[in-house]
Each structure stands twice: as C-alpha cells, then as structure tokens.
Amino acid sequence: xxxxxxxxxxxxxxxxxxxxxxxxxxxxxxxxxxxxxxxxxxxxxxxxxxxxxxxxxxxxxxxxxxxxxxxxxxxxxxxxxxxxxxxxxxxxxxxxxxxxxxxxxxxxxxxxxxxxxxxxxxxxxxxxxxxxxxxxxxxxxxxxxxxxxxxxxxxxxxxxxxxxxxxxxxxxxxxxxxxxxxxxxxxxxxxxxxxxxxxxxxxxxxxxxxxxxxxxxxxxxxxxxxxxxxxxxxxxxxxxxxxxxxxxxxxxxxxxxxxxxxxxxxxxxxxxxxxxxxxxxxxxxxxxxx
Length: 290
Prior knowledge:
alpha+beta
C-alpha cells in the first residue's frame, strides 16, 4: 500500500497571478522574491512558457531571475530523469548514458548527442593511432599519447576536489579531471573499440586495467597514464594503510563506477556545506545501492 501523502493539485497560472508573481519576483526583499520563486517552481515545466517570455522582458531583474528559475527547473527535471535511470537499470547499466545524465543534473543545458559525437570522434582517432600496435604496452602507450598528448587531458591536482571533475561533460570541456573521470574516458573509448580494459576501484584511487594472456597491466590515468603492475598496486595500498586483498583488484561494474562518482560528489558538496545538492546526490546513491 502506498502511504505517500497526496499533494494538493497545482492550478494553472492565471494572467493576473503571473503579473503578480513577476512583481514579487523583482522585489528587493530576498524573502519576497523567494516566495514567488517557490510558487513558480511548484508549477514545474508548465511555467516554462511564461518564464521564456519573461526572459525577453525590458526589466533586467526579471530577465535575470527568470533565467535562473528556468535553470532550476531544468535541474529538477534532469534530477528526476537521472534518479529513474538509477532505479531502473541493472549492474551492467549504460555507463556512458549515466555519466551524461549525471552531468545534466548540474548542467541541464548539456547536449548529450553532441558529447556522444565527440566521444565517437576521440575513439576514431584512437582507432587510427592503434594501427600496428599489438603488444599491450603499445596499446596503452598510444591511448596515453592520444588522451594526454594530442587531446591534452590532465589530472586536476590544483582543484582535485572540485565538483566539476566529477561531471564528465565538464571534464571534456576543461580537459581536466579526477582519477575516476579520466578512467571513464578511457573505458568509453575502449568499449567502442572492444579493447579488454576495465575499471579498478582501489580504496582512495581509481585505475584502468588491460587484461592480457601474460599478465595484467594497470594504467594510472590521473598521472598521465603511468603504467603499473600488480606489485605497484599492492605497494600503493600498503603505503596508504590498507592490507592487500585480491578483491581490491576486481573489475568495477558500470553501476559501481557510477555509484562511486556520485559518492565523490556527495562528499564534495558536504565539505562545501551545500546541503541541497548533497541531499540530491544522496538520493542517487540510495537508488544505485539497491
């Protein structure tokens, strides 16, 4: 039985009420303008057509605040879409689509088709670069040459805990990212080219691993694609204060990768004191943890 309380119906905005809300929205008192904003948001996308007209107003305050509310509505819609994606998809979910939808929760204007096309272009460039490469070290070396050389991606050690490093679209725009987002770029290109590369979620770090007949090779994407072996991973773990367990080197499923990206964001927003965004991201974590 559904015990969720019913919400009162939201009535359409009359012309008179819209005019009143426009006046309240422009009020110098933040408390008054917040009341107007809150009411407008209750109407959801139904209010967007009116807000679009307000964007063309000669009143600069109305224009600015209308644009801000349109963005908030976009985030709320993207929030619902991503939350449903998290609930409905299984362990082997579409990681790429999950990353694009997560980016939309913060940047609702994101053009997913455009970013997918860009990833296709990166992958085709990698396909050309891999011609003649047979040994695993050669393959990984050419991935590094493209991603960290030609395309100019870097680990963002100056703003390591910046939220934008967890949104893949911003990582692509800025050519900067954290360990997991840079590894995700490698994984998305590898999937297109059917390369045997997986993500490895170490405590406190994230790597890629290429599986070979003679042994596995690890790539540290945050440090310009530095190549590692199992002994290097064991050494890192022990230096970080962890006892080594083989489970640490097991491939992370797409769902677990997306969950970890959201967990990183949750900690970032908590550290900033942004309780609203932290709360939204926590709901994604709950959905992905089911």
